[in-house]
Each structure stands twice: as structure tokens, then as C-alpha cells.
Amino acid sequence: MNAEDITTVKSILSQPQKIAIIPHKNPDGDAMGSCLALYGFLKGMGQTAHVIAPNDYPKFLKWMPENDSVINFERENPKAGRLLEEATVIFTLDFNDLSRVGQMETALKAATADFIMIDHHQQPGDYAKVTYSDVTMSSTCEMVYNFIQYLGETDAITKDIATNLYTGIMTDTGSFKYRSTSSKTHRVVAELIDRGAENMEIHRQVFDTNSPSRLHLLGVALSNMVILPEYRTAYITLTQEELDAYDYKKGDTEGFVNYGLTLEGIIFALIFIENKEEGIIKISLRSTGDFSVNEFARNHFDGGGHTNAAGGRSELGMEETISRFNDILKTYKNELNP
Ligand code: 5GP
Ligand code: MN
User: Fold this and answer.
1) pLDDT attached to residue 338
2) How far apart are CA 293 and CA 287, in angstroms?
3) Helices (H) and strands (E) in the chain — how many of each?
4) For the chain, where do the domains classified as CATH 3.90.1640.10 start and end?
5) What is the pLDDT of residue 299?
6) How remote is the CA of residue 36 from the centroid of ligand 2, in Å?
7) In this structure, which residues have their CB less than 5 angstroms from ion ligand 2?
8) pLDDT tens-digit readout, 5-52
9) Which of 171, 244, 304, 311 has its CA at a distance of 20 to 30 angstroms from the CA of residue 156?
10) pLDDT value at residue 333
11) Which molecular-function annotation in GO is an example for this chain (predicted)?
């Protein structure tokens, strides 16, 4: 954030505001962690704030401090709509374009509030009064820490705020191992531990609360994996039928896509997950090195994200989607074998 933006934010927050804080649709640990941390911080300043999530999110995030205050736009629509209408400031966290909030997009576009974006995705949109965008950042949570630091308020970071920030940094960095994890990230994390974040307990809550059906679904996913060594690619499919057979709950497939990348020589991994209700195949894409899944998802599957982690969708059936993917992949043979 530049000096001018810091002055603007300080001036906005020096007045009482009605604040809405918005994560992207299907929020992950970084989206919820950053929103809940900012919520705790603004509340501590005496501001009126609400976190409004576009839709539901996985159980493994619902233990997070302040989670009970979250308003679900889908389930509590009139209330959420009213809060967005009345808001004087809207923070959008962990996304780069208003289309990333699903059904909430219309309400956000109609809002009269000043927007403040904090985000680390590529190609940020141009809708905010203050845009704090930095694609080199490990996570939006690391940026919320910086944001608080820019305001000169790190002493206001409570144990709850530290816990929420730690959770998002941990989940978005694959437990501090992705390329975007810098020495600065580790310094921030150390500070969060000093401020009360219980690292082992947070890890346990997020990763060690599996259900038996989720592990069995992982077994199905792994046996469905198709490995294409000539393209250094591995992909997984999961049909709605397979999800239903293993009592699928939101978040159960989180992390499955990463298994492809653990294969020696594989640099591009995908998972195609059927969602009959929405009539789409949701695609998660991951890579290691310079192959940009952001570009791949953006150019072919109506999506985007980061160089090494992106999402997209297909409105064709599973078989047609896979066949289209295989055709597209052929045109990337050289890029995948540099
Ligand atoms: P995931 O595969 O975990 O859903 O998403 C991976 C990354 O890509 C996340 O940073 C997420 O925010 C982003 N992402 C997921 N789906 C989409 C999408 O449809 N459009 C864009 N622009 N980004 C996405
Ligand atoms: Mn993120």
C-alpha cells in the first residue's frame, strides 16, 4: 500500500463507518482468516463491522475465532442485502474481481460504499477506492497483517486476530512450503505465535479432523488419477455419483489436487469435480515452476488465480470436458517440456 492509500485509509477509519467485509465465494482458509482477522481488528477500533460470506464454507474452518458472527448471504439474504446497502465501507478480501462472489455480485455493484480491496491474485479489477494488491504475497492474511502494521496498530493484534491470520497464511502456503513463502512470511508468522496463535492446535483443527468417508473419497480420487508422463501432467476426476456415494460435504475434496504434484516428474495437476446442482465441472489446477495455471484456466476454463494455483469451470459434461482438456493439452506439449 502506498503512502497516499495509507493516508486515505487512516482518514476513512478515523470516522465511525458501517463496514462490510467480503470473502470470495466458496471461501477458503485465507479468505475466512483475513476477513475474520480484519473484523476483529475493526471491532477493536470501535467500528461497526460484519463479515458477509457469499455462501457456506467447510466445517474445518468453522472453529475459527469470531466464526459465529459470519453472515451467510445465501441463507440470510434480506439481512445481508440490507447491510450491503447501508454500508459506508466495503472491504473485499482474497479476490480480484467482483464476479468472484457469485450471486452477491449484483448487490456489491449496487452498493454506494467506498471499496477497499486487499488481495494477492493476478490481474486485479479496478473497482476499489483503495486497491492494496500484491501478487508476490503468500496470502491475503499476510497482507492484512501488513495493513494493520501500516496503520501503526500491530499492538492491537489479539490472540484471536493472530489465530485467524495464522490459519490463512498456513492454508494458502501449503503449511509454509509454496514459493510465495518468504522470510518475511516467517517473520510475520513468528510474530503471530508471539501474540498467541497456537500453531500446533491450528494445524490440528484444519488438517486432522477428517471423517472416514472423506478418506475413502480420497481413495477413489487417487484410483481415478490419470497420469500423462509425456505432458508431465496428472489429473483426477470425481463424478457426482462418486461424491454422493461417500457422503460428500463441502471441503471434502480440499487438497486432493495436490497429490498429482507429488509424482516425480509431474509439474501440472488438475482435479475435475462434477457439481450437478450448478450444472458445472469445477476445476482446480496446480503447477510447480513457471507453467502458469492462471493463464491456462483464464484462456480455456473461464477461471484464473495464481501462477501455481488456479480454478476454473466447464459447462460440458465430464466426458466432454476431459476430451476437450486432452485436446487443449496437446497444444501445450512444448511448454510443459521446456
Ligand atoms: P481452488 O482450486 O482451491 O478453488 O482455487 C485455487 C486458486 O484459484 C485460489 O486462489 C482461488 O481464489 C482461485 N480461483 C479458484 N476458482 C477461480 C475462478 O473461477 N476464477 C478466478 N479468477 N480464480 C479462481
Ligand atoms: Mn488467498
Assistant:
1) 87
2) 7
3) 13, 12
4) 3-207
5) 98
6) 14
7) 30, 94, 140, 172
8) 999 999 999 999 999 999 999 999 999 999 999 999 999 999 999 999
9) 171
10) 97
11) nucleic acid binding
CATH number, domain 3-207, options 3.40.50.1240, 3.30.565.10, 1.10.8.60, 3.90.1640.10: 3.90.1640.10
Task: Name which of 318, 278, 292 is nearest 26 in CA terms.
Answer: 278
Q: Do the Cβ atoms of 130 and 5 come closer than 8 Å?
A: yes
> What's residue 61's pLDDT?
98
Regions of the chain short of the pLDDT cut 70: none
Question: What atom in ligand 1 is closest to the CA of residue 310?
Answer: 8
Contact between residue 312 and residue 286 where contact means Cβ atoms under 8 Å apart: no
Q: Give the residue range(s) of CATH 3.10.310.30 domains in the chain.
A: 212-336
The secondary structure of the chain in percent helix, strand, coil, rounded to multiples of 5, reads 45, 20, 35
Fold of 212-336: Diaminopimelate Epimerase; Chain A, domain 1 (3.10.310)
- Report which protein residue has its CA nearest ligand 1's atom 20: 303
Closest-lying ligand 1 atom to the alpha carbon of residue 97: 22
Ligand 1, atom 24, lies closest to the CA of 311
pLDDT at 7: 98
